[in-house]
Amino acid sequence: MKKPLLFIMITLLLSTLSVSFAYVPNGWVLTYPTSCWFYISEDTNSSPYLNDLIYYTKQWNSLPELGLYQTYSPSDHNIAMYVVSYDTGNCALAQHYSDDYHTATFYPSWKNLSLTNRREVIVHEIGHCLGLAHTQSSNNSNSIMRQFNFNGKPYPLSDDKAGISSIY
Amino acid sequence: MSKTNLRYTFLFIMFLTFVSLINMACERVAESGELTHLYVEASHPAFENLRDMEDKTPIILIGTKEAEINPYNFVDDTGREISEFSMAHIKVDKIIKNHDPISLDSEQMIPVLENEYQKDSTVFHIGGYQKMELGKKYLLFLYYSEHDNWYVINGVVFGKVPTSTSESLLYGQKGDSPSLPEKVIREAQESYKHFFGK
User: B26: how many CB neighbours lie within 10 A of its CB?
Assistant: First the structure.
């Protein structure tokens, strides 16, 4: 009796720890992750940042589970990106409307960041749209999804890859 | 069943209960009454400690929340209708620091944007922000947005400090306990407590 119980207890404990000390899914799951279309609202606010928004969104294409492509259709896409001029104190915000429709909004505080940090925030917000929440702080150096501050690496890291792999 | 087996069965049941409680505590969506609360993913500036926040904040004051508009609707300069925030009307009680060119006076009412809003029966907490309670006093670390003509709480969750230490600080916080914002807020409560109640 002892050994099976001990085995079950250790398995349960490990599964709980894996939730607490690794990537954290946010429950947003795209139906077709290899065919994810993103749209950037083109106006005077976003025009200086268009190239970066496209290039750093596509950083997620280094993962085999994902395929992100730009579309110019304002009505048919999975992720809509906005650069706005009103100030809320946030750098950026990712919002969930349905499994296949999310928005990422970038605020003036984002524009004021250094170039590398600004790019890191783009990858981070798209990470939310793909299903990742903020990681646990113990994983900060291995994840673009760290809640505070930056790694200086604007691309998905090992914890993010493990997270996407587990979701898709 | 032997006594040893009974003991192990009891331990196993206790363990299952413990694991279930941990998982329940980690849920990101909670229901309270008829309202559903949701955590909204956000990135915002962070401060390492109180000194860091003080150095990077032009306006520090104590104010009372007198009214709110929730959600606060406006049209941005691209023509999009925005209703994802609420607006608090704060009566200034005590100005501790004002390095902004626009002057402030005691008793003045100022608009302060809050990163929580309600739509139908759902309350959205942006970055885990919990809005101020009506009639209560707060120590606020602010800056003025000239573009918008409203005041912004610096660091979103960092710069709103309840003068009551029993008030909850964040919604849906996972991970470190206390989190970085909680540490900075508690430090501010301790450092500025001589201003509270005046």
Answer: 14
Chain B interface with A: residues with Cβ < 8 Å: 4-5, 8-9, 11-12, 15-16, 19, 22-23, 26, 28, 40-46, 74, 76-78, 80, 82, 84-85, 113, 115, 126-127, 145, 147-148, 152-156, 159, 174-176, 180
CATH of B32-195, one of 3.40.50.300, 3.30.1360.170, 2.60.120.380, 2.40.50.120: 2.40.50.120
Taking alpha carbons only, the member of B91, B88, B37 closest to residue B62 is: B91
- Is B47:B184 a contact under the CB 8 Å cutoff? yes
Percentage of chain A lying above the pLDDT 70 cut? 88
pLDDT given for residue B156 in this prediction: 96
pLDDT at position B180 over 70: yes
| Domain at A25-167, CATH from 3.30.450.20, 3.40.390.10, 3.30.450.40, 3.40.50.970 | 3.40.390.10
ipTM over 0.90: no
Confidence of residue A137 (pLDDT cuts 50, 70, 90): confident
Q: How far is residue B59's CA from residue A95's CA, in Å, rounded to a whole number? A: 30
